[in-house]
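Section handout 9: paired folding examples.
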Amino acid sequence: MRSHHGNRTTSYGPRSQVSSGSLGGGSLEGLSRSLTKEERASLLERIEKSLSLGDGARRQIIHSELQKERRNELIQADMERLTFRERLKLWMSGLFRAGGQRERFVALRLSQARQRVREHSQDMADFEGRRFLPGLPREIRALCRAAEPLSGFFSYIWYNPSALRTMLDYLLARRIPDAKNSLEQLCPLEELQETFRETESPGKLKQTVLERLSKYVESIPDAVIDELEGGMKPLYLFKDLVLFDYDSFFALFRSSRVEAVSEDDISFGNAPVSTALERIEELYLALHYCSRVEGEPSMYGELLHAYCALRQETEPGTPLEDIPPFDEEKVLQRNLLLLAREASRLRDSVPLQDMIRFFRTDPYYRFMAYTPRLRLREFYYANLKIKMLDQLDQRFQELRKGALDTMIRNLFPRGLSSFEYFSPEVETGIARSGVAELRVHRSLQFIFTFLQRIFHDDLSDFLRILSRMMPSRNRSNSVDISLFAASLEDLEQRLRAFDISFSPDSDEGKTFYRYRFGTADRDASQLNAYRALIQQKNRDARETAEKFQELLQGIRARFLSLRRGSMTQMNERYRNFDPAPGEDRPFETRLDRSVKVLESTQNILAQLILLESGSGSS
């Protein structure tokens, strides 16, 4: 990964090759689960880390002791900057107390801190009794009131990661030039269909999407990301102040947050330093974060709009950009500005740092301020990866169907042949009955078309020639080829019989239509008989498809074995049956063409069966 302003050295997406698999193979199931539970959980964890969500370290005070040498350097530098009056005090302190000059200088600094606290208009602390006095919570009360109107917004963001993801997704889609917010914007569907058709690999689709996503995210200019991260800072730097535990703070002074934000007069109590000091340190640190905002703070309007829209009773699925602006958006923006001004006033007027250092008995006391790290580019990639792969799952059936339609058109430019009686309307009617389902029409239509246009018009003639031209030593292959041709003819007759069985004039067809149009008035036994009829039709169709696949596989295996023989001899033999003028290798050319047709037919049929059975669906 790149440095903040350097060149990137690693990709946000995987570069490893994905196994291509086969068109009808197991990789199809893998695509319907493009993200496993483990992968999704890992990406969500990556999102949380990139946004510094749920970071417990930021909520803790990390005390940092100076090294002795560094401490002495600071003391020496401060002593050199003493005024004449301060030098005189330091010298006179040596007349009344023991200890070296450095120890007396530290005591002087603590005394000065105490004096600055006492000069405040409010009674803040009882240094001798080691107590914080009611003047401190009275000062903090205005801060609590300023933070209260923003508590819902900040709580919603920081305690609801999925909502924050949605809000940031909307922000980036609006702010990044030419943002890719959908699968089709990243990879046109036609291109994905073409990839699927060419590679016959569902896994290749996923790889293509991830490679395109990685290049897209890496191509976003650094300046755009830096500007967006800068605009997000108020969400982080004001978080601890808005979500500060005001209830616990005011409880230390025998009051509550509810009383503090009210207009009532409140009598606060005292709070022991031993129990209140760490809470005051947390408040001081929260104020310190706010001071890091340059100028007057503001939040992206897209975030405020998304927040308001997500909390409203809007119609599900309505795009955020189609929802009109809310008045609350301007109110939240104004409230943030008011809080920033109150925090600035408090930092300047209330000597929290002096009180902390005095009660820690160390004018050089400090604690580490955790700086949240926002990695917006990493968030964008992980979030889009989930989004794009989910969309790929949702669109896969459409992609596969589109690719199949193209493959079928390439094989049968005139489209598929129709049965006389068995049609898609028949299947729709069966499904509408609610009793059973028959989803076999397109696969059987595809087989029927193959038998009519490829087998009868070309393949049967080629098989006949092969059976006659085979050498005597390959007589078994000749017999097998003749049997394959005869079996395909039998299969065509079986398909015609299946089609006729849906004719209203056939006995079986009459039974079918009688049950189909009268299921509402049938008793349980009659409905069972109708269901059994449809189940039998499903079995007949599947057996036909399996037999067809078996025959094609057998023919293809014989063709491949012929490829391994002497092509010169086979080409000469073939010319005796088919002169094929202009062809140097007539047999080899026709054999290769037939193998390609058989392979394409097998792959298409396997996908049609998967579509009809629902396997591999998203």
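Moving on to protein 2 of 2.
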Amino acid sequence: MSGQILGLVATYTFLAAWPASATEARQGKFSQEKIVMKDGVQLQICIARPPTVRPKQRFPVLLTVDGYANPCGSFGRPWYAEYVNAGYVVAYLSIRGTGGSEGKLADREYSMAELDDTLEVVNWLSSQSWSTGRIGMFGTSWSGFTAMLVGAKKPPALKAIVTFMATENTYSEDVRFPSGILHMDDYTVAADSMLFVTPPDQDPFDEEILRNRFDQQPMSLTFLRQQRDGEFWHRGLRRDLNPSAGDVPTMMVGAWHDPYRNAAIRALENSNGPVRVVIGPWNHSSDYPGPTADLGRVTLDWWDYFLKGKQNGVLEKPQVSVFMRRPYRPIISRSQIPGEWRSITRWNNAPIRPQIFSLTESHALAPIAGPTSDHRLRMIASTGVGAGLGWIDVSPDQREGDATALVYESSPLTSELQILGSPVASLLSSVDVDHANWFVKLSDVAPDGTTTLVTGGALNGAQRQSSVEPEPLVPGTRYPLEVKLYATSWIFQPGHRMRISVSNALFPSYWPSAKPLVMTLGVGEGGSTLALPVIPPQAPESAENAAVDVASRNLTVAEAEAAGSGHAKTTWNGPVRSQILRDDLKRTTTVTRGYQWASPDGEDVSVEYSVADDDPAKASFVGRSFMKSKWQGHDVEWRGTTELKSDAEALYYQHVRQLLKDGKVVREREWKERVPRDFQ
């Protein structure tokens, strides 16, 4: 959940305007209540009821839960208001230690305390006099994660789930260790420095609140101690490891420019219960870049069927609606993505077939493997700085990022080729050290050479067989390695080429492995291959009908390019500042980025990454954030700085947290720790 991936107080406001007590609004009536947990801690919940209520009338309840302490008062997402107007009570719970909820702030997202509290709240909501006893859970990102994790515990009152840009795989698909590799970003800093902030209506200098929030261990340190997969990461609640975790009917809204999109495909393939999926061209915002869809209407059909018992035929409708992207100019601030919507009646019966391409001796990507050969690549630790933010948001032209990778291209296509699903790169490879990572990118190369990222994937070499029990590589030993690329859609055009690039670094999206290395990649007969999930083209009228189903539209390439560029109103559309500094004498690269999280006046989170090409062990990260407010005429400011440095053996962590009153520090906490590398 990074700044690309999450919003905070200003960017993802569920309810805004503090405080509100039984406030009348056009969309409904709001109230704040306290729920007493079994340990006596009181949690604050904001409840929005329909605007017109008959005596003793009862409603199904939709619950969303997170740690962002969003205020109570008005709707931030249009479909939330639609839910209330459609006859649902909508409830927003601040987890303990956030907002108006008592208790200690947990040192991680999705803690067991959070999940247990949510189970209690589900039961409480189901027992209220105004409740029908039928509960749904929903939300974007954090709240979507929590909905699925709680759903896996199957509380009887929970009848359905709707998630937006979320996953239940909290290890290899969240932002701490994507693909099992350490990742640091603006969310790391924001979570460490902003989640503990006191709500505007409470004394920011209250000693008890500060002990329970300000003094609690930063989340990034907790996660840094958990570098491999295991029960800490809620493995038992994952759908691929436990299909019964998907018993509760779940609708998942995903996006091709969001890193959690694999969860939707996994749910389709592994859940025991009903699943409906919509995947659009958006980033984490669920509406940008366009075209948008009427997600309120689509999700209401799901709620109405499972919570109200309406026989609206939702399970007879196509199970999947996906936006099939067409090639576009790789401008990160573009406002529209060209393509067409497509309906899939049942995912497991979709006409998707793998088409295999070999990486060849001549650096081609071809259906015929040709003679066996080896290609070698010396790792350049700064590989990736020109490639964008990894697999999230729209990326820039990939030519610079591919310059220090092994590259293989197809011949110009003679006909359209459509793919939908997860490409798989099967590599035959070795390195001359005992630890390495592999990165694979799939791109579209236009006739003029413009190279647009389609998708990519990564593999921690130590986790080639198990993410729970990683093992070192044997230098010089050739391994068959499977790199599963992130799920995608694409319509390759005649005259375009397909490109695959292979490297051992993707900085700064992934922390570099410690040792300089040379990779050997086996190509040709018996060597490395790429399997693409190819699907036949659909009829034009089918695309039009599919767009109507989600109240969206199809866009030609010309229409999308004419729409130009434009920045979203939140940090989900990327940093507001991004710079790359290279020192050719020292062979170092520094990347700095600034983000606008909660400040309407400009940058309030900044990050800086550095790496040395000749000594990748010595990488570093520093992130800084601040938030300002007023309290009884005093200026209040919270500051946080998270630093991480590494050598070949360990990661060196430091976090400093400060509270200022009228410009003077009145409270400060510091955490410092040496954490051994665990196959990172």
